[in-house]
Amino acid sequence: MCRHLAHLGPPTTLSALLLEPPHGLLHQSYAPADMRGGGTVNADGFGAGWYPPADPAGNGHLPEPARYRSDQPIWSDGAFASLAAATRSSAVLAAVRSATTGMPVTSTAAAPFADGRWLFSHNGVVRGWPGAVADLAAGLPVVDLLTLDAPTDAALLWALVRHRLRAGEDPARVLSGTVLAVEAAAPASRLNLLLTDGATIWGTAWDHALSVRVTDRAATVASEPIDTDPGWEPVPDRHLVVAAPGRLDRRPIGPSSTDLPTDTGIPDRGTRAPHP
Fold it and tell me: Is the pTM here over 0.85, yes or no?
């Protein structure tokens, strides 16, 4: 199992978001509240992706996210601590990893996975890997299979999601459809996915915990609340969440959830100041 987080809001340092909160990803890496099997710590690597500010002279072109990934525990990486203290962003996706037995511990196996402006993470496990999902993998272009970041279930899930995103499908439909397809092929899998394009967060809670906090200024979706702010709300199991500052939508994941409208905005959820 892993722990992950996606955040949108006013620019803040990576350190203030990931390392300094009392139960941020740094704390969750060695003292997670709910691992549900698969180990007790997340010491098999970590990663962070963040979106640089737009260049005023960039003619409207939005920069792609930067990433830092490591096969070391987050608590042992002094270089990242220095980088995180000096790097500010308004959109971040990060994860700490506990590798499933038999899967490699390499930096390229750590989330976030990336393509263009997309960042993606998986917390969980695909049961019966790899045979259970061989038929799903066979539907991907050969080049996608040959260029997986790593021979892991998370990397394959990203390839499945990325293939549909490149075809222009709605991200909510993509995540719901991917979860349902993998669950059908590999029952009892844990499929907690996070996806962002730097403006919206999409996530699934499927047989593991997910929490969300939304104010008019910020939105955070995480495996576990990073602090004691009462604004955190649990995402019900087998639900999809779509979040952005001032917007929150939660829907059951089922056959009908693969045919979702694009507009997911709802009224402002509150005015509490977000965690920095």
Answer: yes
Contacts of 90 (CB under 8 A, 6+ apart): 8, 9, 10, 11, 12, 51, 53
**Per residue in 246-260, pLDDT tens?**
999 999 998 766 644
Residues 6, 203, 275, CA angle at the centre, nearest 5°?
30
Kindly list the strands in the beta sheet with 201-205, ordered across the sheet, starting from the edge strand earlier in the chain.
Answer: 113-115, 118-125, 190-196, 201-205, 239-244, 247-252
**CA 151 remoteness from chain centre:** 19
Say if residue 57's pLDDT is above 80: no
Residue 104 φ then ψ, to 5°: -70, 150
Lookup: tokens for 203 = 């996530």
> Rounded to whole angstroms, what are the CA distances from 34 to 10, 38, 84?
29, 11, 26
Tell me how far apart the alpha carbons of residues 15 and 217 are, in angstroms, rounded to a whole number. 19
* 64's tokens: 């792609």
Which of the residues are catalytic? Answer: 2
Burial status of residue 256 (CB atoms within 10 A of its CB: 0-12, 13-18, 19 or more): exposed
pLDDT per position as a tens digit, 188-236: 999 999 999 999 999 999 998 999 999 999 999 999 999 999 999 999 9
Do you know the residue count of the chain? 276
The two tokens of residue 247 are: 């917007």
What is the distance between the alpha carbons of residues 203 and 164, in angstroms, rounded to a whole number? 16
Amino acid at 203: G
